[in-house]
Amino acid sequence: xxxxxxxxxxxxxxxxxxxxxxxxxxxxxxxxxxxxxxxxxxxxxxxxxxxxxxxxxxxxxxxxxxxxxxxxxxxxxxxxxxxxxxxxxxxxxxxxxxxxxxxxxxxxxxxxxxxxxxxxxxxxxxxxxxxxxxxxxxxxxxxxxxxxx
Length: 149
Known about the structure:
By secondary structure, this protein is mainly beta. The chain has one helix and ten strands. 9% of the residues are buried.
């Protein structure tokens, strides 16, 4: 589906779960999956091609047809609301595994893996590790809170 001027997508919730292991030999392993829900409002005019307008049921089938490939699943229902399709979408992305090395100095943490690296600050309080990072030196921030098992 291409971008449509009046299409809106609202993320209702996301949940990240998995494992993160820092080893004494300065290597780490992570396996993290994500699930969530979102609501999409798609004008019927966005479903038109070649003089034919698709239906909300057909749009739901597109969302349900494996838009993630082997990486995850989606489950969607779409209903007509005026001249729009309102869709509720549940998403689940399979856990992704990464391994690499890390270094820590003071409250700074640096990770390196085949997919790139990240830098951030960390704090340990009791069994809780908090990492605030900027992956690959970008401007976005991520906040990870992990509990020792």
